[in-house]
Amino acid sequence: MLSRQIAEKLRAYETPFYLYDMALLRQTLESVVYESNKYGYRLHYAIKANYDDHLLETIRAYGLGIDCASGNELRKAIEAGFDPRTIVYAGVGKRDKELRYAIEQRILAINCESIEELHLVDRLSAEAGCTTDVALRINPDIDPKTNHCIDTGQADSKFGISYEEILEHADELKALPNLNIIGVHLHIGSQIRELHVFEHMCNKVNVIVENLERLGFSFRFVDVGGGLGVNYDVPENEPIPNFASLFSIIHNHLKVGEREVHFEFGRAIVAECGELITTVLFNKTTATGRRLVIVDASMTELIRPALYGSYHNIENITSDAEQEVKYTIVGTACESTDRFDENVRLKTTRRGDLLSIKSAGAYGMSMASRYNLHDLPGAVYSDRIE
Ligand code: LLP
Fold first, then answer.
1. Is it true that the peptide bond before 16 is cis, omega within 30 degrees of 0?
2. At residue 159, what are phi and psi to the nearest 5 degrees?
3. What CA–CA distance (Å, rounded) separates 344 from 313?
4. What is the pLDDT of residues 82-134, one digit of tens each?
5. Cα within 13 Å of Cα(274), Cβ side
6. If phi over 0 gives left and psi between -120 and 50 gives alpha, with beta otherwise, what is residue 146?
7. Distance of alpha carbon 299 from alpha carbon 339, whole angstroms
8. How much distance in Å is there from the Cα of 325 to the middle of ligand 1?
9. Distance 190 CA to ligand 1 centre (A)
10. Over 80: is that where the pLDDT of 144 sits?
11. In terms of CB atoms within 10 Å, which of 115, 118, 175, 203 comes out highest?
12. Dist CA 234 CA 228 (whole Å)
């Protein structure tokens, strides 16, 4: 991990902050682009994972498009220089003004998540005097075998349109004059580590696409979303996710025909290049004997452990102690769930030590809040450190 190598230099910056290993980000991008080119797959970066300007600039240089989830994310992507024709926009609850903006920008596709939304996009497009390219976000009813908080493709979930509902409205959808229904979209969940789930997904998509085309739809692309997981347990063992395996599964199981295949990776691109660097403020022991380490970061910088019970590997990067002690690492926020980990073995930790909370580049900064009026964390980039 980068932080351990440059720990003394990091003391020059006010904590807590995100440290980004830009060389690792570039290597990750090289890998995903190289592997996807073998099959001609199209890539979109899910900007919700991290909308940092320097990261976006780097990602854009590798030719990825964007997947966005709000009008403001769309605006951010366009301001960062991404070509609107490489941007897709999903979301169950798009506001009229967000849809009007997306229609105006002529993006690659609005991924619609309800029959009502499709009707609305049709009407707003008529008002704008244009026809809009859209994709049907389908709920394929698949268990992605991940943390339940971040699965999105099961029958009862709020995401996507059920296959049954599309069948029921097929004729009326095909007749909407101001829509071009050019794609099928799905995203079954995030942090998926059991890759056979994607094989199951392909089998379902094949049937759905075939049946809908038989009914007269014609799809230029299938967008299979993101979801590829990373190694939070031992990030050093797998700093770059296994894109090759995922693409080979899709290649072997998705019936593509002439259609383009699109992906929307968020976590797999940026999680491992980011670490949250925090300073130890105090040590204390509870009446129950629990040894607490109180750090100057909290759930306001990284909410994943408090929100989903997610695990992030933590290391004391400045201690040279021989001995290891079991600690519970807690943050500064006034919430009992503001805990980064329990009973974690760290080198004996003292006030002033720096800890790294690893694999924090995705859904860290982008989910930060100002609860307790905390300042938002800063960012330090490996290619800008003197
Ligand atoms: N496409 C769509 C439509 C999505 O909803 C998402 C993520 C992605 C792509 C990117 O998924 P990824 O490749 O990153 O798995 N905050 C949670 C994750 C929420 C993911 C939401 N959707 C976390 O910290 O684990």
1. yes
2. -90, 140
3. 9
4. 999 999 999 999 999 999 999 999 999 999 999 999 999 999 999 999 999 99
5. 30
6. beta
7. 8
8. 35
9. 5
10. no
11. 118
12. 16
